[in-house]
Specification:
The protein has 281 residues and is mainly β. The chain folds into 2 domains: 8-162, no CATH class; 164-269, Beta Barrel (OB fold (Dihydrolipoamide Acetyltransferase, E2P)). Helices cover 7% and strands 51% of the residues. It has 2 helices and 17 strands. The chain has helices at 41-50, 146-154; strands spanning 14-17, 20-24, 57-64, 70-79, 84-93, 96-106, 112-121, 128-134, 137-143, 160-172, 177-181, 187-191, 198-200, 209-224, 227-236, 240-247, 260-270. Strands 1, 2, 7, 8, 9, 10, 13, 14, 15, 16 and 17 form an 11-stranded mixed beta sheet that branches. The protein has a 4-stranded antiparallel beta sheet with strand order 3-4-5-6, with no helix packed on it. A two-stranded antiparallel sheet has the order 11-12. A hairpin with a 4-residue loop joins strand 4 (70-79) and strand 5 (84-93). It is globular, with a radius of gyration of 20 Å. The protein starts with 13 loop residues before the first strand and ends in an 11-residue tail after the last strand.
C-alpha cells in the first residue's frame, strides 16, 4: 500500500481532550490482514479491487491525510457475504488515485459497554487503534469506523462498541496443563482446559492481536469467494462472548458447540451498529 506517502514521520504526539488521550504512533498503514479470511491474498485483492465502483461508495470527504493536508478520500464497501464486507479506502493525491488501506468488517454480534481511554492514531490519519475498557477488560482494537467517526472517539461520545476477532488459526481442545513453583511452597499444577482467557499476543507496540480461549457456543459457515470461513461464537469471561472468524484451512479441525478452542488473531471493532449505506440514490 502507499508506502511512498510516509517519507516524513514526525514521531509521537499526545493531546488530551475530555479525558481521552490521543497518541500519534509510528508505522505504515495497518489494515488488510486478509490472510485470515482467504489463503491466496493476491487473488483476494484482485477480486476486491475489481469490484470497487461508485455504486458501492459509502463515504466521500476531504480530510487531513498522512500529514499532507486535506485530500479527497473515498470509501467503498465490497460485500463478501451477508455478514462480511471489505472496506477499501482511496485517496487522491495530485490528481492520482491510490489505495490508502483496506480491511474486513463484520456486521454481526452484540454491543458491549465501553469507555474509550486512549486513541493510537497511525500516520495515515484515517486509521487508529482504540484502547478501551470493555466490560471489565482493557483491550486495544482496530477501529474500522475511525476514518468517519474520529471526532466521536476523541470527544468520548462513544460508550458502546462491537468487537470481533479475525483468527489466523485455531486449535480445538488444546488441553493445556502447566506446573508452577510457588515461592517457598510446593509445585502446583494449573489446569487450563476450561480457562477463558484474553491475552495480548505481543508484549510491546500498539497491541491489537490477542490469544483468546473459550467454549464454542455457536458455529456458522460463511462463503468467502470459493473458500469457507467459520463464524464461531465463543464464550470468553473478560468479554462475555466474541465472534471469531477463521478460514477452514487455518484450523486443525472444525469445532463443535461445547469444544474449547484457542486462537490468535486481530481484534477489530466499531461503534456503529448497522451496515453503512451506500451513497447511490
Amino acid at each position: 500500500m502507499i508506502e511512498t506517502l510516509f517519507r516524513k514521520n514526525k514521531g509521537e504526539k499526545r493531546d488530551d481532550k475530555k479525558g481521552v488521550k490521543l497518541v500519534r504512533v509510528q508505522g505504515e498503514p495497518h489494515g488488510s490482514h486478509f490472510m485470515a479470511l482467504y489463503t491466496d491474498t493476491d487473488k483476494f485483492f484482485e477480486d476486491i479491487f475489481n469490484r470497487v465502483n461508485l455504486d458501492n461508495a459509502f463515504h466521500m470527504t476531504e480530510k487531513p491525510f498522512a500529514d499532507m493536508g486535506k485530500q479527497f478520500i473515498s470509501a467503498h464497501l465490497v460485500e463478501l457475504n451477508d455478514k462480511l464486507s471489505v472496506v477499501a479506502i482511496f485517496v487522491m493525491i495530485k490528481k492520482k488515485i491510490e489505495i490508502a488501506t483496506a480491511y474486513p468488517v463484520y456486521w454481526n454480534g452484540d454491543t458491549l459497554n465501553a469507555r474509550i481511554d486512549t486513541i493510537y492514531e497511525w500516520p495515515i490519519q484515517i486509521e487508529a487503534n482504540i484502547e478501551a475498557t470493555v466490560n471489565d477488560a482493557t483491550v486495544r482494537f482496530f477501529a474500522t469506523d475511525f476514518f468517519m467517526g474520529r471526532d466521536n472517539y476523541i470527544e468520548a461520545k462513544i460508550n458502546r462498541v462491537r468487537l470481533w476477532l479475525l483468527g489466523y488459526g485455531l486449535r480445538v481442545n488444546p488441553h493445556e496443563r502447566k506446573t508452577i513453583k510457588l515461592k517457598n511452597g510446593p509445585v502446583k499444577e494449573v489446569n487450563l482446559e476450561k480457562a477463558e482467557l484474553l491475552l495480548p499476543y505481543e508484549k510491546n507496540g500498539v497491541l491489537d492481536e490477542y490469544i483468546i480461549t473459550g467454549s464454542v457456543k455457536n458455529i456458522e459457515k460463511l462463503k468467502v469467494l470459493d473458500e469457507t470461513v467459520y463464524d464461531i461464537t465463543v464464550s470468553n469471561a473478560p468479554l462475555k462472548e466474541i465472534h471469531i472468524l477463521v478460514n477452514e484451512k487455518n484450523m486443525e479441525r472444525v469445532p463443535k458447540p461445547g469444544d474449547m478452542v484457542e486462537t490468535v488473531g486481530w481484534l477489530e471493532g466499531m461503534h456503529h451498529t448497522e451496515k453503512w449505506r451506500t451513497l447511490k440514490p
